[in-house]
Amino acid sequence: MREAGALARADSANGPAPDAASAGPVLLDAQGLRLEIGGKRLIDGIDIRIREGRKTMVMGANGAGKSLLLRLLHGLIAPSAGRMTWRGGPVDKSARRAQAMVFQRPVMLRRSVLANLAFALKVRGLRGSARQARIDEALDKARLSDLARSPARVLSGGEQQRLALARALACDPELLFLDEPTASLDPASTQAIESLIADANRRGVTVVMVTHDLGQARRLADDIVFLHAGRVAESGPASRVLSSPRSEAAKAWLEGRLFLDGQGAQS
Amino acid sequence: MQNFASVLGDAVALILSGDADLMEIIALSLRVTITAVVVACLIGLPLGAVVGAFRFPGRTVATVLLNSLMGLPPVVVGLIVYLALSASGPLGPLGLLYTPTAMVIAQTILVTPIVAALTRQVVEDLDREYSEQFRSLGVGPVTRIGALLWDARYSLLTVALAGFGRAVAEVGAVIIVGGNINHVTRVMTTTIALETSKGNLELALALGVVLLVIAILVNAAVMGLRASAARAAYA
Asked: Which positions in chain A touch B137 (Cβ < 8 Å)?
């Protein structure tokens, strides 16, 4: 397998040459991932290696398969074909519990902020003072301590997303998936979310995040995987992909041109 | 035909007098109905939640069955329970026929499908929202059912209310298995039927008024709860 940059192989016929491999052991390795629904191939033979400690941004146009790829990697959807390993072994229950995901629309239980955190930690087996300490820490980091007793569903969009992220991080994941966590958030909320993500990554959490925001990719990404029509059009270190993209799809995206299937780029 | 206003006046006076027989009938009605609704909820809530939240072979059949059983004819249920509890029936040795327990059994059979079918719908809708988050967290099946039921608690109050409405107004099944025995199994609905046939309209109407007031009070209480829950954004 050719491996571009930190994690993925370019699958397109015009795929780029591989970049220098990044350091860090492979956390999650997916080979030949394919997803077909109703006879339509939505994910088309993606190979991807997620290395420990990296922040990987998954980019691409609407319908490119970004969210589906995240769900496949996190095990929320079963692939039609392909295989995955976790640290070289099977993706078992413990591997799943070492992962967490934050969705574009945060899912808030009909409970208080505190109870949302407590529920997740109870599921992860934390009890008593250890759980309370983790809750206090999560509330503090997400700057939600003052809202601890408030119903989660009355929080603003930014606060809900901070809570969703805090809940995911409170579970102490090794690998965190984020599906456009700052979509439709204002700059201040976006900054708060990005700060939490960067902080978690500094503490060793590996991040795989879908984003449409080029600026966000520039601010956060170590690596970029660019999808087009369910395939990896290009991947590699963010500095290289963002400055000199090799695939036509990524070039068009970065230049703000329309890139339509079978029609090439349009100015 | 007596004047309606005059009968209603007598009925209200009967209620306000705190007539011992009337109170006994009301108390038994509430005891039987509430017991049946509680038992139906204990069975129907988890049953509906399981059908609503999990995918398994035969789930569609189970859903159709639950929905269909919501319209069980009370007299048929009464007849089946009667046959089961009668001296020659399989449960005859228990000696439950013509007791309040027999009435609870019949009402439970009528109410459980209502609770289960409505719960299935509520839980299925909520599970659609929570499903990916739960799978991401690794929530087990028992915790999942518990969390769905807890988070849907205000909607499920309405479900329980629908069951209560069915049970408290039921007459066909309880008259068959209870026998409408004075001071033993006589409840509001069976008394209304009996007293009307005897021409004792004051007592019949008094019980009718009580039934209506109970229905209004229970509905108002549940609506109030739901409204406060909505204000707090829990619902």
From this structure: 100, 120, 123-124, 171
